[in-house]
Amino acid sequence: MQSPHPNSDGQTANSEADRRLADRSGLLVGAPDEREWAAALEMRSRIADSSEDPLPADPKSTSRGPRRRGRVARFAWEMSQTIATLLALLLAVVAALVIWDFYVTAPWTRDGTVRVQVANIAPQVPGQITEVRIVDNQYVHQGEVLYVIDPFDFQVALDTSKAQLRQAAADLQVKRIEAERRRRLTELSTSMEEKQLFVGSAIQAQAAFDAAQQQVAQAEINLRRTQVRSPVNGYVTNLLMRVGNYAQVGTNNISVIDTDSFWIDGYFEETKMAHVCVGDRAEAALMGYPDPIVGQVQSITRGISVANAAPSTQGLPNVDPVFTWVRLAQRVPVRIRITDVPAGIPLISGMSATVTVRGAEARGSGSWLHQRLARLEDRLFDTIHNRRPSPECVPRIGDESGTTAILSTPKPSTPLNPAEIDPALAPEMGKQQTGGPGSQAPPRHQSRRH
């Protein structure tokens, strides 16, 4: 049977060759349509023209190169994934150590409080309040008058004491003169018993004169105490007193916050106390203020309350039989002395603060980056190996001497000479140099007449 086309054998051979070429170029030939064949040939020619390297004659060599490059690429990808996994694991371990150090062992606490000393002022003399010179939350200086108590009764007491002092001074001068006159007489003019009586009367007059002086001094101090003054520099707080109230001795009626006594208490967990040293730099951030207050660790409390130490009704220790497996770390108060307060931050007693002790920055030397790296290295080392506190970190009991606060108090007045009170009563007493009322009698061989 003859073929319908004269060149059917040649066309079949050409189509077989074109199909092999299409397979080499990666094209799959489907239906034997002439248009599809033409499109495949055109695509093959475009790929051959765009390729720099000629198509190898051997089909095996064509597939060997991409396989090698694929294996190298897969190996590089697997290595990169392994390295990335190891780096992520290492970063996770370091982050876990840093977080553990920050939350467990780093010396910081959110349990901080601003503290201050409060002077509770009570009158030393009773009476009705006649004048109040202050208002609530007013700043007062040390020695400034806060209020005044009615001084009439105390002025009368002072005047009476001064009158009694003049009376005692006159009586003392007269008895001294009488005792001196009897001392100069011989035993023929007077007896020894009479001399002793006059000498004793002079001594009693001296005692009465001394007591009168003390009463005058007490009356003067009581009169000055009717003006109640502030013992410290600070702010008057919670003022409830008013004119007309009666002031009781020893009853507080005014409170003044001592502005020179502010400090911060940080309550650190006992697991962090190994990183707290006396003298370290400390920062306290108050709630609502971005800039921290700078201070210094001044002291560490040496004792806190223990519930098991409470005695029972029989005096025996009361021990709680319930003990849980979860043990909470006790908190130890640490006193922070304030050294620098940023502008615009008011110190108010009772405010909450986050306290952070930065001992590395305070004691370290070098640049900021060097201190940071050294601190991170120390923290990681302390986290892995438990830190041993330095013996000089916390002073021993009795190594530090505290400051002594002294309040000025009135002093007794200098004893007076009775001749200075009334010189015209006995002018010769100021001129004579006698041995006093207790002087010995003259020798018996002196003249018997005065």
What do these coordinates show?
This protein is an alpha+beta fold and 450 residues long. Among the domains are: 8-55, no CATH class; 118-254 and 410-431, OB fold (Dihydrolipoamide Acetyltransferase, E2P) (Beta Barrel). Helices cover 39% and strands 17% of the residues. A hairpin with a 6-residue loop joins strand 11 (281-286) and strand 12. Helix 1 (8-24) packs across helix 2 and helix 3 (59-105) crosses helix 7 (368-384).
Helix content: 25-40%
The coarse overall form would be elongated
Quaternary organization:
single chain
The order of strands across the largest sheet is: 1-10-13-12-11-14
What percentage of the residues does DSSP assign to strands (E)? 15-25%
Report the CATH C-level class of the domain at 118-254 and 410-431. Answer: Mainly Beta
**Integer-rounded radius of gyration:** 52 Å
The name of the CATH architecture of the domain at 118-254 and 410-431 is Beta Barrel
Mean pLDDT: 78
Uncertain parts: 1-8, 25-31, 360-365, 432-450
Number of helices: 9
Strand tally, please? 14
State the distance separating the first and last CA atoms.
Answer: 197 Å
Helix and strand content put the structural class at alpha+beta
Order of helices and strands: HHHEEEEEHHEEEEEEEEEHHHH
Largest sheet: 6 strands, antiparallel, barrel
Fourth-level CATH superfamily of the domain at 118-254 and 410-431: RNA polymerase II/Efflux pump adaptor protein, barrel-sandwich hybrid domain
Give the CATH topology of the domain at 118-254 and 410-431: OB fold (Dihydrolipoamide Acetyltransferase, E2P)
